[in-house]
Design goal:
Elements (H helix, E strand, L loop, with lengths): L1 H12 L4 H19 E11 L4 E11 L3 E5 L6 H8 L7 E6 L5 E4 L11 H6 L3 H19 L6 H19 L5 H11 L16 H14 L4 E5 L7 H13 L3 E5 L3 H7 L2 E6 L2 E5 L3 H36 L6 H13 L28 E10 L2 E11 L4 E6 L5 H8 L6 E6 L5 E4 L13 H6 L10 H7 L16 H13 L5 E5 L7 H12 L4 E5 L3 H4 L5 E6 L2 E6 L2 H12 L18 H52 L8 H33 L1
Parallel strand pairs: 3-7, 3-8, 5-6, 6-7, 12-16, 12-17, 14-15, 15-16
Antiparallel strand pairs: 1-2, 1-4, 8-9, 10-11, 10-13, 17-18
């Protein structure tokens, strides 16, 4: 629309022939696309050593983009996020942020302040509102004290106050307290936590506070580096919904496959020092990447065959005078060949088998009435469960509900109430969240694994290390120089090579990439023994566990089936929480008036809840339909953009008219989507 409207008045000033009109229109199309982008990256290059980390990188981030930034560890994903937010400068190239665009960045690790309460720390997200409120209060006081109502200075003060007050109301005014509470509770905090000092919380919970602050600021572009590492399943689901409904643009680095599938609609892969843009979600990208890699391999093999033939010809006829000219031609051709790069070999298909171990008893773990209290605080009580030999079970629930506590009871690390029996011949392999601290700092990565590897596994140590991102020179590093994530991965490998028949893994996937998680998942799946897995990673648990124990409210509930069976069942159960207790109050005459009254109230409450749920479903459907319409229109806009790149279409008035009308409809639909989203938020929170 912008391009079509400008060409007509431009012709009145400058006479344009057909060729010039096409060129001008194409320039306007490019300019319009550039103006619509929030962040534009052009010819980016980053060098840390001899070989560039990546180079010739160009892409744009637009409104409503949900981008998964993927690539092997060390490819430069975190570096790219730092460059996009301005924390790091590239070697060359430009990153242009359009005027007024705000950026929120959550790194994997950050320094955290511990001098306030949870609520006060979250309130820092609204520092602009607070400062503006103070200015308004100061101006209001000044107006009340002055009496020169007709003076130019007083009128100017009134005008300034009016403008500032309108701006303050547009920013939300004083209504941010409710938003703070919703966000903190969505990320797993209780109301009783709001006034607690942040110093009382673990590093993972303090990272949640930082995430809450960033989300509350509502930046135009969210850059999130492994945001789910410290979240439980319910908090991850809340974050998914927030990003889908409230965020404008998102660039996300995550090893949680289910999370990025639910959130993203575009995938940027960093591979071989380049960035490849796939306009699809992660699952579709995996298929396209496989096809692309097969094409790369064929091209690489053909090129290697051609190079080998040239070298053979040169060696064969190098010293024959009659072939001297042809030899020189072959040498020049060889020098001009640009080697085809291919992705490093994917080790995710590698199989890792646990070493043999003694057969355990039929029930490795039996709990009968197990309870744990810290003073007056009950973590859980009357836990009764049994884990059969060969079962793979998951412990899930909000953080702080006792998952790790019960694991410590099983390991006999802490005292507890009740009876807990570890079965006959049970040999436990335990991966705790602090397991990395127990490694010997004086050894290298290779030596650490070589100590526990037995038999034929010793011949495959390098392959195993490569599958867990310790390939090449990385295996010669000393343990003492490894990062926290690297130490955790090394501790996991060490555990996998020890002969055990009961695995207890506490958040094993926090520092693993997707291929490493695939290796670990396949190893546990083929493990003959028993496994207890504490994890928030749904994709990792899917197809792996056959029973789920839910921790919450001081109880442990058993759910048969996989992790998604558990989630579906939990959602169904949550709709039946208001069932009326059958033990109604009877009066002395023996009638059921108390019971009838309770049932009547219950029915009314149930009807109200059903009506509210109906409204929520209707609003959700409207938002979804609007998003589908936007998706179709955006897809057609992209098709037209591609058509305009061809010279023969640049002056096609039918296409120009369609483009202008489509952009108008898209703007209207975006406004409608915003209204529908606000309506959904209202009916959801009522």
């Amino acid at each position: 629309m912008f391009c079509a409207r400008l060409i007509v008045p431009l012709e009145k000033v400058l006479p344009l022939d057909k060729k010039k009109k096409k060129a001008v229109f194409f320039c306007f199309v490019l300019a319009y696309a550039y103006l619509c982008s929030m962040i534009s990256v052009e010819n980016l290059k980053v060098e840390f050593g001899v070989k560039p980390l990546f180079q010739d990188v160009s892409f744009v981030i637009n409104d409503r983009d949900r981008i998964a930034l993927v690539g092997k560890n060390g490819a430069g994903k975190s570096t790219m996020l730092k460059i996009l937010c301005g924390q790091q400068k590239p070697t060359s190239g430009t990153v242009s942020v359009s005027g007024g665009t705000t950026i929120g960045y959550l790194p994997q690790v950050m320094r955290l302040a511990d001098d306030t309460t949870v609520r006060e720390e979250a309130r820092k997200a609204f520092a602009g509102n607070t400062a503006m409120a103070e200015r308004l209060s100061s101006m209001e006081k000044a107006m009340a004290e002055r009496t020169d109502y007709e003076s130019a200075e007083y009128l100017a003060l009134v005008e300034q106050f009016t403008q500032e007050h309108e701006r303050y109301l547009m920013m939300g005014g004083d209504n941010y307290e409710a938003e703070i509470e919703r966000t903190l509770m969505g990320l797993g905090f209780l109301r009783s936590d709001f006034e607690r000092p942040t110093s009382e919380f673990s590093g993972g919970w303090r990272m949640r506070i930082e995430l809450a602050k960033i989300l509350l600021q509502r930046p135009d572009v969210l850059l999130l580096d492994e945001p789910t590492n410290h979240l439980d399943i319910e908090s991850i689901q809340w974050l998914e919904q927030f990003l889908a409904q409230s965020a404008k643009a998102v660039v996300l680095v995550s090893h949680d496959r289910a999370f990025i599938n639910h959130v993203t609609n575009r995938t940027l892969e960093i591979s071989c020092g380049r960035v490849i843009d796939y306009k699809v979600r992660y699952d579709e990208y995996v298929v396209l990447r496989k096809d692309r890699r097969e094409q790369q391999m064929r091209a690489y093999e053909n090129q290697q065959k051609e190079i080998a033939e040239m070298r053979a010809f040169i060696e064969r006829f190098r010293y024959q005078a009659t072939k001297a000219v042809q030899v020189q031609q072959k040498i020049k051709q060889l020098e001009k060949i640009v080697p085809i790069e291919i992705d490093e070999v994917d080790n995710s298909a590698m199989r890792l088998k646990f070493p043999p171990c003694l057969r355990s008893g039929d029930y490795p773990i039996i709990c009968d009435g197990v309870g744990k209290h810290y003073g007056n605080h009950k973590v859980f009580a009357d836990v009764t469960l049994s884990v059969k030999r060969g079962e793979k079970v998951a412990f899930v629930g909000k953080n702080g509900e006792g998952k790790t506590t019960l694991v410590k009871c099983i390991m006999n690390e802490i005292p507890f109430d009740g009876m807990l029996k570890v079965g006959h011949n049970v040999q436990i392999g335990y991966f705790a969240q602090n397991q990395a601290q127990l490694l010997d700092d004086s050894l290298t990565v290779f030596q650490t694994i070589d100590q526990v590897a037995k038999g034929e596994i010793r011949l495959r140590i390098n392959d195993i290390l490569g599958a867990f991102m310790f390939g090449g020179e990385e295996s010669d590093k000393k343990v003492k120089v490894l990062s926290g994530g690297e130490r955790s991965r090394l501790a996991m490998i060490r555990l996998l090579l020890e002969p055990v028949n009961l695995l207890i893994l506490d958040e094993p996937t926090n520092h693993l990439d997707m291929s490493s998680k695939d290796v670990l998942k396949e190893a546990i799946r083929s493990f003959d023994g028993t496994a207890i897995i504490v994890s928030h990673d749904r994709e990792f648990l899917d197809g792996l566990v056959t029973k789920v124990y839910e921790f919450g409210g001081g109880k442990v509930r058993e759910h048969l089936g996989g992790i998604y069976d558990f989630l579906r069942a939990k959602n169904i159960q949550s709709l039946q929480e208001l069932e009326v207790n059958g033990n109604g109050n009877k009066n002395v005459n023996g009638d059921d008036s108390g019971k009838s009254k309770a049932a009547s109230i219950g029915k009314n409450d149930y009807a109200e809840r059903k009506e509210r749920q109906k409204k929520v479903r209707k609003a959700e459907k409207a938002v979804k339909e609007s998003e589908e319409r936007i998706g179709k229109m955006e897809a057609r806009v992209k098709e037209l953009d591609m058509l305009f790149c061809k010279a023969e279409n640049a002056s096609d008035m039918a296409l120009i008219t369609e483009y202008a009308e489509l952009k108008r409809q898209l703007d209207e639909e975006n406004d409608r989507w915003l209204q529908l989203s606000e309506q959904l938020e209202v009916v959801t929170n009522n």
